[in-house]
Every structure is written in structure tokens, then in C-alpha cells.
TrEMBL record:
Annotated binding of S-adenosyl-L-methionine, by residue: 19, 42, 97, 115, 140-141, 161
Broadest EC class assigned to this enzyme: transferase
Residues at the site labelled Interaction with substrate rRNA: 4
Reaction catalyzed: adenosine(2030) in 23S rRNA + S-adenosyl-L-methionine = N(6)-methyladenosine(2030) in 23S rRNA + S-adenosyl-L-homocysteine + H(+)
Protein name (database record): Ribosomal RNA large subunit methyltransferase J
Organism encoding this protein: Bowmanella yangjiangensis
Length: 280
């Protein structure tokens, strides 16, 4: 069993980017009355205590969500995210992607939450006990995504954010997304990935493979906050979105300058939004 526990990293800059994208995508789906499904392939515990030994050991939330909460942001979408997360932060907690989905989804929508870590799935089940439209699954998220595709209803969002502890995660992700997309071409696939030191970075190969999926529109978002080291460290993160909804990119373009300004402490920090493939 792998050792990754997200409690060490809850609320860091990567979470902020990931959860902002998640919020925008879920809000887009909720613009229509029709029900949709939310699938989380690597759910973790779903909700995190920032006073825990894990969070205090790294303190990564201090350079992530806490910086954003202290910033005087004006973008309406940034302010919506800040308002939502601040409710938890006041209680020394941070909402993971399943908890954000619980807040943003409606009663007619379905949450399918997968987690493979033995301890984390128990925490996930405890945190979602009694949530009628949420279903937890103790299973490999890559395998589960393929098995659930296409879901009913066929409107929906998949969030994929594995630990990338193993180099094989990159290829397993590509294989799972390709197979799932074959079965579910209308789904929105949001894939978080780390930007790592040069010797460890496998992200470019992965994004190229996903951009090659026939018929898919693919938007790549990157937030780079530190210099890229040669041997160790995460200098930023990215979100690859397959089948992004209309104006999702416009919303991100509007908020990214303020987000960067709130999180950066290096003069070379930057962001970029690139369409890797886009239908005319």
C-alpha cells in the first residue's frame, strides 16, 4: 500500500488551483437544471484538520490558502471560492475536493468518491456518513473510472489527482482516461498534475499523450511559483481539462493574475493557459 496522505499538503498552492478549477466546472454544470454526476478518483479523506500533526509538520497551507484568504482579491469567482473556504478555515479545517463537491452539487446530483488507501477511505466514509447523494468506494481510482464510464446521468465531471508517488501513475492515468473517454465522450475530465524538478518531471509526456485523444478539446493550465530545480521539489502544478465548458477559460484568464499575485514569493513566478487541442 502506498504511503501518500494528503493531510500533509491540504490547502497548499496546488490545492488552491485544483479546487478553483473544480468550483468553476461544477458551477458550470449546475447552470442547467439537469442532474449530473461528480466522480472523484482519488478522494482522500475529503476534509482536513489544519491543526493535525500532518498539516503542522509541513505548514504548506500557510503559503497556499492562507495567503489567498489574506489577499484583497476582487475577481468574483476568486471571492466566491474564498468565501466558501473561509467558513472551514475559521474552524481550522480545509475542504478537500469531495467536500467542495458536496457543497456545490445539488440534491439531484450524484457524488461517486473513490479512495484506495485503507485508512483514508475510513476517514472519507466517516466524513460523508449520512450524505444521501454521496457514494464512497474502496477501490483503485483508475480502474473505477473505467468501470463507471459512462455513468448515469451522462452529464458530469471527473476529478483525477493521484499522488504520482509511482512513475507508473502517469501511464495508468493516460490509459484510464483514454479508455473512459472512448465510453464517455461528453464527460469533463479535470486532471491535476505536479510540476517537478527536471530529473523527475513526467508531466510533459503525460499531457502530450492526453492532448492526442481524438476529438477532445484540451486546455492546459499551469501555475509556476518557484524555480525549477534539477533534482528535487515541486515548483508548481497544472490542471489539464478535457472538454472544458464554454467560457471556463475566460473565467480562469480573469482570475489568474490576482491568484498569482496572492501566492507568489518569487519574482519569476508565472501562469499560463494553453489550448493543446481545440475544435473550430
Amino acid at each position: 500500500m502506498f504511503s501518500y496522505r494528503h493531510g500533509y499538503h491540504a490547502g497548499n498552492h496546488a490545492d488552491v488551483l485544483k479546487h478553483l478549477c473544480q468550483m468553476l466546472l461544477l458551477n458550470k454544470l449546475a447552470e442547467k437544471d439537469k442532474a449530473f454526476v461528480y466522480i472523484d478518483t482519488h478522494s482522500g479523506a475529503g476534509l482536513y484538520d489544519l491543526t493535525s500533526a500532518q498539516a503542522q509538520k509541513t505548514g504548506e497551507y500557510k503559503d497556499g490558502i492562507d495567503r489567498l484568504l489574506d489577499a484583497n482579491c476582487q475577481d468574483s469567482n476568486l471571492r466566491s471560492y474564498i468565501k466558501l473556504v473561509d467558513e472551514y478555515r475559521r474552524d481550522n479545517r480545509y475542504p478537500g475536493s469531495p467536500e467542495l463537491a458536496r457543497r456545490l452539487c445539488r440534491s439531484q446530483d450524484s457524488l461517486q468518491l473513490m479512495e484506495w488507501h485503507n485508512n483514508e477511505v475510513q476517514n472519507l466514509r466517516a466524513n460523508f456518513k449520512g450524505v444521501r447523494n454521496a457514494h464512497t468506494h474502496h477501490r483503485n481510482g483508475f480502474e473505477g473510472l473505467v468501470a463507471m464510464s459512462p455513468p448515469k446521468p451522462a452529464r458530469g465531471l471527473v476529478l483525477i489527482d493521484p499522488s504520482y508517488e509511482l512513475e507508473a501513475d502517469y501511464q495508468e492515468l493516460v490509459s484510464a482516461v483514454k479508455e473512459s473517454y472512448k465510453r464517455w465522450k461528453t464527460g469533463i475530465f479535470a486532471i491535476w498534475y505536479p510540476l517537478l524538478a527536471k530529473s523527475r518531471d513526467r508531466s510533459e509526456k503525460m499531457t502530450k499523450a492526453l492532448a492526442a485523444i481524438q476529438g477532445a478539446d484540451v486546455l492546459d493550465i499551469q501555475l509556476k511559483l518557484h524555480p525549477q530545480e534539477q533534482d528535487v521539489g515541486m515548483y508548481g502544478s497544472g490542471m489539464l481539462v478535457i472538454n472544458p465548458p464554454w467560457q471556463f477559460d475566460t473565467q480562469l484568464e480573469a482570475l489568474m493574475p490576482e491568484l498569482l499575485n496572492a501566492l507568489k514569493d518569487w519574482p519569476g513566478a508565472s501562469y499560463q493557459l494553453n489550448w493543446l487541442t481545440r475544435s473550430e
